[in-house]
Amino acid sequence: MSKTTEQVRKSLARRYRAERRFRAYGIISIAIGLAALAILFTDIIGKGHSAFFEHYIKLDITFNEQTLDIEDARDPEQLNYGNYDGIVREALKTRFPEVTERLQVRELSALMSIGAGYELRDLLRENPEWLGTTQTLWLLADDDVDLFLKAGEKGREDSRMSAEQKAWITELEAAGDTERRFNASFFSSGDSREPELAGIWSAVVGSFFTMLVTLCLSFPIGVAAAIYLEEFAPRNRFTDFIEVNINNLAAVPSIIFGLLGLAIFINLFGVPRSVPVLGGLVLTLMTLPTIIITSRASIKTVPPSIREAAMGLGASRMQVVLHHVLPLALPGMLTGAIIGMAQALGETAPLLLIGMVAFIVDIPTGPLDASTVLPVQIYLWADSPEQSFVAMTSAAIMVLLAFLIAMNTLAVVLRKRLERRW
Amino acid sequence: MNVKMKASIVGAAAALAFATAPATAIARDTISIVGSSTVYPFATTVAERFGRGGNPTPKIESTGSGGGLKLFCQGVGTDTPDITNASRRMKKSEFEQCQSNGIKDITEVVVGYDGIVVANSAKAQHIDLTLRDIFLALAKEVPDPKGGEKLVPNPYKTWKEVNPSLPDTKIEVLGPPPTSGTRDAFNELAIEGGCKTFDWLAAIKKQDKSKYKAICRSIREDGAYVEAGENDNLIVQKLVSNPSALGVFGYSFLDQNRGKVQGAKINGVAPAMEVIASGEYPVSRSLYFYVKKAHVGVVPGIEGYIKEFTSERAWGPEGYLVDKGMIPLPDDKRAEMAKQAQGLVTMTGNEL
Prior knowledge:
CATH topology of the largest domain in chain A: MetI-like fold
Number of domains of chain A: 3
Oligomer: heterodimer
CATH class of the largest domain in chain B: Alpha Beta
Number of domains of chain B: 2
Low-confidence stretches of chain A: none
Number of strands of chain A: 4
């Protein structure tokens, strides 16, 4: 046996060990990543799942003309100013006749959400003939009641409600007059100060308009810039300088774009604060570098032979680009755009400076209506004192994550299906 | 090539200007409100009720008191806010800024009080502090414990060292960072309040105001005071999991988390609505909002919003704002303030 083979044999075991270690490092890294993801998801889902349900209480509501102060239920003016909280209080007092003292009545009324009154107004508007009758209705409970009913044995002790309130709810629960229902308003209403009435729809719509503006601006501009730089621009110091700057912009902290938006769009051009158009403009600045860089990369993957063949057949440079290069590079560009959009969807920092951290109840109807976006809604709820907003925050994070996962999956699918290998 | 590029840049800028120009001309039919994050939960509650009464719901941005006043004082016109909330009074300099930008008529409204509480977990022992204890436990430099009029870097490690009647636990206080209005008020009312109880320190104020402020409004940075971020919910959660720690936050968070945390007595007074309203509780401040009179009648609904905010069903002792943790003004002051607010009485600047 030669000396070299001897040496190789000796080192073989060590080299195998080294390789096994190397693989183990890789597996450990992936495991750490997955564990972090699992912790994040269990925490968020564990905290947030309860927000998708809310509790209702069954009451016999008497639409009493005197208490309501309504004579004609068809008159919208009278309907608007009716004392609906009054009839809810009456119904509770009928349910618990032993409660007479003023402070106790106040505590009793606190069991129902303020939304209950508005719901009764809407019901009476639809059914004017109910005036003067008694109806058995399921009405929304207050957020504290909701928390109490959702909590376990221990959580119930820690509830901020008084002992009497707890006793009343336990009585209602035992009588089967409480019910857990799917929280549909979470997906259909805007922000509210009352957790049981708050929803994410205004934020989702705001996000939609903001993303729409961002996409409409950043995609055409980004693609045009990429095509020009790749296909037409001469290679000289000036274009190198532009390239360095674009790459730099991609790494600039997003809050800087917010400052820029404040200085240029608001102060110079007078764009109103808090509107999706403004948010879209700022996020366009932020996503442009991402789109330009990915678009250029995908144009680069188109083989030169395609261009040469087209030119050989007499196509002009514009025809080469529009008829051949662009369609072939488009899948890559789209993927880049979707990833850029996903980034923009999760962005909060630049929006803090341009007034999109706002309390928005009404659902925006266009890109010029004041609105907020999903991540900002999460930020606002996380900072609210009411305990129920903890679950709401996590639920909103789940919705945001669902959107992000959907967008990123779409990017992967597009790449897999449309990409051509040469 | 360069010329072409320049032309396209100019073109793009022009297109941008064109695209955004019509936006400025749009008249606003929703009230725009900015300002303090402390007043935000109360203002949003009012706005929501106001909106449900058939009006467009006002838009409320949480910008902080200083940021809000800066935006408010930018000028008159629908691109500036109509109302700003503040957890402190407008400063003379801010009033002058407003005046110089053409905002001559401003109405000031005091809406209520907010208390700042020192709290710990409901499972831990109840704590009874004085302002002097708070100063000694948390200030950066304190009078030498050995005596004499000399300042030393804060040597105290446990509450027992500060005051023998306090428990023998490590000083660990979670509170807001310096960017927060709550922190400013805590420094000014609690730390400085305790500082003033040393006569020789109080005497410095007359000689050297900035030196006095540096001593009496600074918080130690050796880890005993932990800056827990702007999020008060986080502080509450941390207190629950760590019964030996204390936390500093607004009264509304104590109110919403009764059962989880308890408020410490300060100078013998436990934080509660009545004592904060009467001024007996030492760490409390007033909450304000300011109205730009030039916008009343231009932006619809401002008067209605003010009326809603200053109605008994909102800010009265049994109003819905109390349920949110705001502390109402005393009856006579409330009546007077409601008249001033609904009559849109103009500030003269002398009251500041």
